[in-house]
Amino acid sequence: MTDPTTVLHHGPGRLRTAVAAALVLLLAVATTTLWAVGRSQPTAAAWTDVVQAQGQVSIASVAGGTVTDVVAGDSFSCALVGGQVWCTGDNSVGQLGTGDTASTDVFVGPVRGELQGKTVTKVDAGTAHVCATTDDAVYCWGLNDRGQLGVEGVPSSTLPVRVPTHGHEASVTDLEVGASSSCVVADDKAYCWGGTHTQLGSTGTPVQINGGALPETATVTDVAVGDDSACLVADGVPYCWGANARGQLGDGTTSTSHLPVQVVTTGVLAGFTSHDVAVGNQFACVVASGANSAERTFCWGDNSSKQLGQSSNGAQVDLSTTPLQVRGALSELRSGLVAVGGKTACVLAYDGAAYCWGDNSSAQTGANQDEWTVPAVRDRPERVLTRQMSADSVLQRVDVSTDHGCTLTTGGNVYCWGANTKGQLGIQGTAGTAGRKVFPWPVTPTWSAWR
C-alpha cells in the first residue's frame, strides 16, 4: 500500500456560471478523477466560456490540474485544484472568497482578488476564515474579528488580503489556521497572528513565537493552532502555549502560559521524536516516531468527548495534562498525518486509510454504518468508511472540523461527510439538516466558475 503523501497546507459583481449548465441528471465519479456528464461544458483552456460539447469532462483537468488538497472549516470546505482555491458552504462572512456573502452547496471559484493570476501552494481553513500561500506571499480572507487575517481595521473581507510577513514570504514551509488565529513556519521559525486566550499574545500583526521553554536556536518544523491554544514542533520536541484549563498544553499543569512550554516527553513519549502536531478545542495530538520507525499518535488535554482515543478498555479520564498514546487500531498501525477539529481527531495511517474518533454528534468521524447507528462519541479510532469509493482507493489527505470531514484520494477524488446545513459537503441540492452524510460521499462534480 502506498505511504501517505504529506500535503503542506491553503470579484464583486462578477457572474458565476455553472460549469455544466445543461447537465442531464447523470453524474459519475471515475476511479481517478471527478467527472460531469452533459452537453454544455467549459473549455479545457479556461473557465471563461461555455461551449457545446458531447461526452465527459474531467473537472480537475478543466480547472488546470488535479485536486491536491482539501480542508474543512466550520460549515464550509475548500479544495486546492491546479494551484487555485475553490470553496463551498457557509459564506456569511466571506469565507468562500467569492467577493460576496452568498452561501452555496457546490464548489465555487477560483478565489480571485489579490490571488488572481497567482499559483497557490498551501491552503487551510478555520472557523470562519481561510489562508493560502503562494511562492512569495500569504493571503487570508473571511472573518477578521480577532485579527486572524493579519490586517487590522476591517471586520471581515470577502476577498483575499495580503498578510504582512516582513520578508519571510518566500520561505513559508507550513501554514495552519485555527478558530480565530493563523500561523506559518518560515525560516525555521513560527509566526502567528490573531486569536485570543493568550495563545498568541498579539493582535492582527504577525509575530515570531519565541521565549519560554523554546530554545532560541530551535528549528521549528511544524505549527498548529486551535480554539484557545497553539503548539509547535521544534527539533522533534512539542511545545505549546495559551489557555490550559483542561491540560491542553501537555506540560503536566493546568496553568495558562503566554510563552511556549515543553510538552512532557517522559512517560509514553520517552524515546519518541515528534513530527506532526494538531490542536483542537482544548486538546492536542502529535504523531511521533520511536523505535523501529514506528509512528504512533499521542493526545492530551480535554477528554469530554473521548477525543484522547483511550477506548472503553482504557482509562477513561476526564482530562490529561500529559500525553496519552491513542489506543485501538492505531496501537499497531503506523500513523502518518493527524488532523483535529473541535473535539474530533483523525489520523491518516500508512495503510492508506483514515481513522477518526471523539465527538460524533454530526457524524463527523465518517465511520458510521447508517443513519440509525450514529453514536454521539467514539472512544477509539474507527476506520472511515470507503463504501462510496473504488476498491483500490488510497487516501492521501484527511481533514475534520467541528461538524464535518473531507478526504482526498491519491486519484484526486474528494469525499466529504457529516453535517450539511450550509452545503459544506459540496453535494448539490442536499443542503440542510436532512442532507447529512454519515460516511464519505463524493462531492458533486459540477463546480461553479467565474465567467
TrEMBL record:
Pfam families: RCC1, RCC1_2. The chain crosses the membrane at residues 18-38. It comes from Oerskovia douganii. PROSITE patterns: RCC1_3. This is Alpha-tubulin suppressor. Gene3D superfamilies: Regulator of chromosome condensation 1/beta-lactamase-inhibitor protein II. Keywords: Membrane, Transmembrane, Transmembrane helix. GO terms for molecular function: guanyl-nucleotide exchange factor activity. InterPro entries: Gal_Oxase/kelch_b-propeller, Ran_GTPase-activating, RCC1/BLIP-II, Reg_chr_condens. One of its GO terms (cellular component) is cytoplasm.
